[in-house]
Design brief:
Number of helices: 2
Structural class: alpha/beta
Largest sheet: 5 strands, mixed
Radius of gyration: 12 Å
Distance between the termini: 23 Å
Strand content: 25-35%
Helix content: 25-40%
Shape: globular
Length: about 100
């Protein structure tokens, strides 16, 4: 697993700029492997665009995430984060996160 995990959201149907900022921050902080967790409904088509900035992209495509909700996101991500145990999780400071 990656050293660092970045939570990635879509805003207006596009990957939020925070994804690129957090990927860079993770690299600067010393993350040798940086993974993305892409959250939302019907987001699978956006995964390929993340591969230039992230070593691994994990897709959480769930109807519950049609409207982003921090509690729903946390419930979906918690078991994954426990299992992969990244050194750090970077979460964007958005209206959704």
């Amino acid at each position: 697993m990656a050293d660092y995990l970045v939570i990635v959201e879509l805003v207006g149907g596009e990957i939020d700029d925070s994804a690129w900022e957090l990927a860079q921050a993770a690299r600067i902080a010393g993350g040798e492997k940086v993974a993305a967790a892409l959250l939302g409904k019907d987001v699978s088509g956006h995964a390929d665009s993340l591969t230039n900035a992230f070593d691994t992209v994990h897709v959480f495509d769930d109807a519950q995430l049609e409207v982003m909700d921090g509690e729903v996101s946390a419930a979906l991500l918690a078991p994954f984060i426990e299992r992969v145990a990244p050194t750090m999780v970077l979460v964007p400071h958005t209206n959704y996160g």
